[in-house]
Amino acid sequence: MPQEVRGVIAPGKDEPVRVETIVVPDPGPGEAVVRVQACGVCHTDLHYKQGGINDEFPFLLGHEAAGVVESVGPGTSEVEPGDFVVLNWRAVCGQCRACRRGRPWYCFDTHNARQPMTLAADGSELSPALGIGAFAEKTLVAAGQCTKVDPEVDPAVAGLLGCGVMAGIGATVNTGQVGRGDSVAVIGCGGVGDAAIAGARLAGAARVIAVDVDERKLRQAESMGATHTVDSRATDPVEAIRELTGGFGADVVIEAVGRPETYEQAFYARDLAGTVVLVGVPTPEMRLELPLLDVFGRGGSLKSSWYGDCLPSRDFPMLIDLHRQGRLPLEKFVTERIALDEVEHAFDRMHAGDVLRSVVVF
Ligand SMILES: [Zn+2]
Ligand SMILES: [Zn+2]
């Protein structure tokens, strides 16, 4: 029987979001219905509401979620009812060239649930944010979007691994390959940058330098494990990073802003043959200009990190376990817990830079 539950809808460009009754169908083959326990409010949800992602309104927002599998469709082997899971953006196909080469995080043919969820009022189809749509009491996803983790963890904390926090940790640990004793600089200390800092600490980096223009964010970066901070309004960050690394530059620089000027800072703030990881997301009109001789002469590697190059089945349970051991302070990303009807207010607070994450708890 299809179920009626409450969910947060973005009805049209720049219109306030509102709670509506939505219809969640029974899971079909390869699908699962998940009873959502917690879902974080992310900038990407705001971008959907503003029409910045696409114009397939109405959207069912929410995508950083954890919950319990309620039911699964026929022939589903990934999870079973009762499993506590963290949701991810996309189920991998297992068949494409990337999957067959053992690199499923680059899968070319990812998928979400095939059946639509709809508005109860008029039957219109909903576009779930990032294929998830978890500001709802229940949601329908592809079973491959569910990753089982230790159920002892706080769902508000676990859900954050589904997006920004994983992107940041993965940028350092997976893409940047930070190792024990490395020096790491992180430019831009919002949620993703702070997660990169926590990831660098987890990986054993000896020196973790946080760079931002906002004093509040630098203090927060320290609480995540930054050993040094640089206010780039007051100081040239490239000079400051070199000074803090014996004149060399950092082994790995994480660019978590996604702008040409901060990318250039990252490029020159690394040691010879060092690594730059771009995890901040640029906009289409941005252009980068660098002396090609410097790109060649300085060696090393310039990488981009999509979703932290994560493999949910490998990374989510591991990071939850490390969190449970007290080695990864994921709880610090949860600034406040809110109700389903407070998402619009949470957007305002996020916009003002007051919170790292507001998390809807059910
Ligand atoms: Zn997100
Ligand atoms: Zn694939």
From TrEMBL:
<dbReference type="Pfam" id="PF00107">
    <property type="entry name" value="ADH_zinc_N"/>
</dbReference>
<keyword id="KW-0560">Oxidoreductase</keyword>
<protein>
    <submittedName>
        <fullName>Alcohol dehydrogenase</fullName>
    </submittedName>
</protein>
<dbReference type="InterPro" id="IPR013154">
    <property type="entry name" value="ADH-like_N"/>
</dbReference>
<dbReference type="GO" id="GO:0016491">
    <property type="term" value="F:oxidoreductase activity"/>
</dbReference>
<dbReference type="InterPro" id="IPR013149">
    <property type="entry name" value="ADH-like_C"/>
</dbReference>
<dbReference type="InterPro" id="IPR017816">
    <property type="entry name" value="MycoS_dep_FDH"/>
</dbReference>
<keyword id="KW-0862">Zinc</keyword>
<dbReference type="InterPro" id="IPR036291">
    <property type="entry name" value="NAD(P)-bd_dom_sf"/>
</dbReference>
<dbReference type="InterPro" id="IPR011032">
    <property type="entry name" value="GroES-like_sf"/>
</dbReference>
<dbReference type="Pfam" id="PF08240">
    <property type="entry name" value="ADH_N"/>
</dbReference>
<keyword id="KW-0479">Metal-binding</keyword>
<dbReference type="InterPro" id="IPR020843">
    <property type="entry name" value="ER"/>
</dbReference>
<dbReference type="GO" id="GO:0046872">
    <property type="term" value="F:metal ion binding"/>
</dbReference>
<comment type="similarity">
    <text>Belongs to the zinc-containing alcohol dehydrogenase family.</text>
</comment>
<feature type="domain" description="Enoyl reductase (ER)">
    <location>
        <begin position="12"/>
        <end position="360"/>
    </location>
</feature>
